[in-house]
Specification:
The protein is about 60% helix and about 5% strand. The radius of gyration is 31 Å and the shape is globular. The protein is mainly alpha-helical.
Length: about 950
């Protein structure tokens, strides 16, 4: 047998083996790509595409120096190229060939086009492999290995050819899939049989809709919105003794494994449950085919959480190594703890496979529409072969009725042990495991009775919301929660009671009434809705009773009289020096910490008296919370402002309590009439409340009302966006006249009471989907609006200052006024990846440049490559995004500020920028800040030069304001 025939047989008969190994190697390469990230958004794949010429020599050399700066990962690029060359290239080429062959044999061999595509497939694959090998050789050449210079000199050519050749190699398989989908080259009988199978496949997917929803939520938190990335980094590179760290890592890995197993379990059960009204398939072959698909679909959905966890760990690897490089550390412990986490995930995946094998059924048809609910709920997992029988009780915990209770128990443990930080990832996985159990039972009842009980529940939620009965996110104007000592106890107690109620209802539903659930009549669904109603009554009654004892001072905070801006400005001392107005842009907790650090640095600048000359601070989103933290530290008056800020952020975790409330209390609040309570959210059923409590616990004075600025403090403008109108709604410490904020709202004038400082800042910092929309209620019953993040309107915070500048200029006619912009995640000029094929050498250094000419950059319009992919289809939504507060409107105010500076001497009053650079280490945009992220931000803050912002000058003529 020839070598080519051996390859053909191996590729066509071992497709599953090849696919699994290719996936494992691809994930390993992805993790290494993250570990080999370069500043300014470049990476190892970009490095391989840089031609070895004079223009790129400095960038190539600097990239190697950057990688060598961390000895623990010194040979990382070499290992990456070796793994790609000797493992991934052979595996993916065999996988493409085997998949194309499997599709090809499904068709009759008479068609000339099918034969031609099959014949050219090996040659197209050969071209792709040769190009990929040539690109890897160019990488070895640039790393200094004895490879002919030709490969390095033409690296850009190999890089440009790779994706066209990949598309060409996939073209035969893509055509076969299209022909199969449309029924080309097939007989009518085959097409009819395929339609019946396809109908069954879609039934399998439809039955797993609740699992798909849970997976989408998990992906959103872990990968899309970056909420868990810094959480995982904190597990492997944070403070704490090793027993605590081991406990946290084991608990988080176990929670992730439970969620993955839950996805498998409920997908499998809901596919197996028999629906009486569903007609039988015409042949046994169709039943077996659909059953096989259901079996593999459950396994695939269980694999997705594990894949997402590995991808998340890959990102964390890059974050950890970037942080170590920035801090100049060579700490192998980080790699060790990461390896421990990965090893745990692999071990738990192996156990999952073994337990899954114990549930295997020889009859494939039994995997779809074959059994009753009672039999499925009684199913127990068997121990893998060779495991002692004494461990059978542990396997019993994985049963459909026990696994949700285990998840609830671990959630209660986390609430009772807040010292096990961070908790957010474990809370997410355990909450999803619990709710998948609830949704799984509901789905079993739906399939058994052919009644959409879940739809009825959604309609009920919509009706309650329509009549404003579940408005649980009204921001508090009450003194409730102001005392940090009292707010630490009652939420944990009430949370424990809620979890206990849920566990009791679950036990009654799945054990006492199991026969009723199994009935094909409507009795099972009515029983489920009845228990839901009982839970609502118990929760509402208990919370109405508890709210009277939660805080003795649950009264409206009286409004504080606010002076007009003109009055406040005239109360300030006259000076001939430069005055400042400051804008802090949004960006999650990263921007909050950066804003607070910069304000503290300005405040503590010796001999400048910035606090007396800083008139107004305008904040948006995270910038608003940073400004509020700065105000809180000014009023604590115990330590240096900078020390107060660092200590507060060090012990703060607003994500974990908010996430646990998001996944538990907020879900229940959809069916509990919280609007009938005296206290918003019945004092507990709102994820906004624990978020604010976390800030209060870190900065005690954030519980004080938002009141006028004290002497030596700047006025605050905390900006949010009204959902219903799109207007900017400003929480200001001064009263704003209508002409000062045209078409926008001074919202405090419309409220019944005075919001707390933390509440006002949080209203401006509503991270999309993570934080709830705030509900601002006016004097009338129907007078309310929803407030979203201020970044929707303008993410820079400058437009609010622009509105005030005529009033400020009227008071200070001769004073020079400078705008200070606090920004985060800013790219270094001329270093953005999308603007250059290869970077300047200075862009790859392990530190931000000492000085940048930001002024001209503020004036320049944004330049990006033209959109070519379905421009007509994607153009309108892209335009809508790009003109939003995070797009053009986020850049325009800064440009306008420069445009209106002094025309005679534009160097005098141009805006000053205090930027957190993305070139070194971009902290993820979430609500959790790891120790690595904090230290990286502090290190950048220490290097910021304030001289450009604080320099004085003597104007030759009256200066023009830096804002219109």
């Amino acid at each position: 047998m020839s070598f080519s025939n051996r390859i053909h047989i191996f590729a066509t008969t071992r497709k599953a083996w090849i696919a699994s190994r290719a996936t494992i190697v691809a994930l390993g390469l992805f993790a290494m790509q993250q570990a080999l990230r370069l500043p300014a958004g470049f990476g190892i794949e970009d490095f391989m595409g840089w031609a070895s010429n004079t223009d790129n020599a400095g960038g190539i050399r600097q990239a190697i120096i950057y990688w060598d700066s961390l000895p623990v990962f010194h040979n990382g690029p070499t290992y990456y190229l070796l793994l790609d060359t000797f493992c991934f290239i052979p595996l993916y080429s065999l996988l493409i060939y085997g998949a194309t062959s499997a599709l090809h044999i499904r068709f009759t061999p008479g068609n000339w086009l099918l034969r031609a595509l099959w014949r050219i497939t090996p040659y197209l694959l050969l071209l792709l492999v040769l190009d990929d090998l040539a690109e890897n050789l160019s990488g070895f050449s640039k790393l200094g290995y004895p490879v002919p210079h030709y490969f390095g000199a033409h690296a850009d050519v190999f890089n440009k050819l790779k994706f066209p050749l990949l598309f060409a190699a996939l073209l035969p398989a893509l055509y076969y899939m299209l022909a199969w989908w449309l029924g080309f080259h097939c007989s009518d009988a085959v097409v009819q049989l395929r339609r019946e199978k396809w109908h069954g496949y879609m039934g399998v997917v439809g039955r797993s809709r609740y699992v798909l929803g849970a997976l989408a939520l998990f992906a959103g938190f872990t990968l899309v919105m970056d909420q868990c990335r810094d959480v995982v980094l904190s597990m492997v590179d944070g403070e704490g003794n090793w027993p605590t760290r081991v406990t946290v890592i084991v608990l988080n890995a176990l929670a992730g494994a439970m969620f993955a197993y839950s996805c498998f379990l409920w997908t499998r059960l809901v596919c197996m449950v028999e629906r009486i009204s569903l007609p039988q398939f015409t042949t046994g072959a169709v039943s077996s085919s659909v059953g096989y698909f259901a079996q593999q679909w459950a396994r695939f959905l269980a694999l997705l959480p594990a894949l997402m966890m590995v991808i998340l760990l890959g990102y964390v690897t890059g974050d950890a190594l970037a942080s170590l490089r920035m801090r100049g550390l060579d700490d192998g412990n980080v790699i060790g703890w990461l390896s421990f986490f990965v090893a745990l995930v692999v071990l738990l995946c192996w156990l999952f496979v073994k337990i899954r094998q114990s549930l295997h059924k020889d009859n494939l048809a039994s995997y779809y529409n074959a059994m009753g609910i009672g039999h499925l709920l009684e199913e127990r997992s068997r121990l893998p072969r060779g495991v002692p029988a004494v461990f059978q009780p542990l396997a019993d915990l994985l049963s459909p009725t026990a696994l949700p209770l285990v998840a609830l128990s671990l959630l209660l443990l986390l609430r009772l042990m807040p010292g096990l930080q961070p908790q957010a990832f474990a809370e997410l996985c355990l909450s999803l495991t619990w709710w998948l159990g609830v949704a799984g039972v509901l789905s079993l009842i739906e399939q058994r009775t052919s009644v959409p009980w879940g739809l009825f529940l959604l309609i009920l939620i919509g009706v309650l919301g329509l009549y404003n009965l579940t408005n649980n996110h009204q921001f508090s104007l009450l003194a409730h929660g102001a005392a940090p000592d009292s707010v630490k106890e009652y939420p944990a107690l009430v949370g424990g009671i809620i979890i206990g109620l849920l566990a009791a209802v679950w036990w009654l539903l799945t054990h006492t009434h199991r026969k009723t659930l199994s009935s094909p009549t409507a009795s099972g669904g009515l029983l489920f809705l009845g228990y839901t109603l009982l839970l609502v009554v118990l929760l509402f009654g208990g919370l109405r009773f508890a709210e009277h004892y939660s805080e003795p001072a649950s009264m409206l905070t009286a409004k504080v009289k606010r002076d007009l801006l003109t009055t406040k400005l005239h109360q300030r001392e006259d000076t001939s020096k430069v005055l400042y107005v400051l804008a802090a842009e949004g960006g999650g907790i990263r921007s909050a910490y950066w804003t607070a650090l910069m304000l503290a640095k300005l405040h503590e600048e010796p001999k400048q008296e910035v606090s007396k000359r800083l008139l107004v601070v305008s904040g948006v989103s995270g910038g608003a919370l940073g400004a509020a933290a700065y105000r809180a530290c000014l009023r604590q008056q115990k330590t240096l402002v900078s020390e107060c800020i660092k200590e507060g952020f060090k012990k703060m975790d607003p994500l974990s309590p908010m996430l646990e409330a998001f996944m538990m209390e907020d879900v229940l609040a959809r069916i509990v009439p919280t609007s009938l309570c005296v206290v918003p959210g019945c004092a507990y059923l709102s994820r906004a409340l624990p978020f604010e409590r976390a800030w209060i616990a870190a900065f005690r004075t954030m519980a004080q009302p938002l009141s006028p600025a004290w002497p030596g403090e700047p006025e605050l403008m905390l900006n949010s966006t009204a959902v219903e109108t799109g207007n900017r709604n400003t929480f200001s410490t001064v009263k704003l006249e209508p002409y000062e904020i045209p078409t926008n709202n001074d919202i405090i004038e419309e409220l019944d009471g005075e919001p707390r400082l933390v509440t006002a800042a949080h209203a401006a910092a509503r991270f999309p989907f993570i934080n709830p929309l705030a509900v601002a209620k006016g004097p009338g019953k129907k007078d309310f609006r929803h407030l979203a993040d201020g970044g929707y309107y303008d993410n820079s915070g400058v437009t609010a200052l622009a509105d005030l500048m005529p009033t400020i200029r009227e008071r200070y006619k001769t004073n020079p006024i400078r705008l200070i912009l606090i920004r985060n995640g800013q790219p270094v000029a001329d270093c953005e990846k999308k603007r250059r094929l290869a970077p300047l050498a200075g862009c790859l250094k392990n530190e931000a440049p000492a000085h940048q000419d930001r002024d001209n950059a503020l004036m320049q319009p944004l330049k990006t490559p033209g959109q070519t992919f379905y421009a007509d289809a994607f153009g309108p939504p892209a335009t809508l995004l790009h003109v939003s507060g995070v797009g053009a409107h986020g850049r325009q105010p800064a440009g306008n500020a420069l445009w209106y500076s002094d025309k005679k001497d534009p160097n005098k009053l141009q805006p000053c920028t205090l930027d957190q650079e993305s070139s070194v280490n971009l902290v993820p945009l979430g609500w959790y800040l790891s120790e690595s992220a904090r230290l990286a931000l502090e290190q950048q803050a220490n290097k910021v030069d304030l001289s450009a912002c604080l320099k004085e000058f003597t104007p030759d003529a009256p200066a023009t304001a830096a804002l219109p």
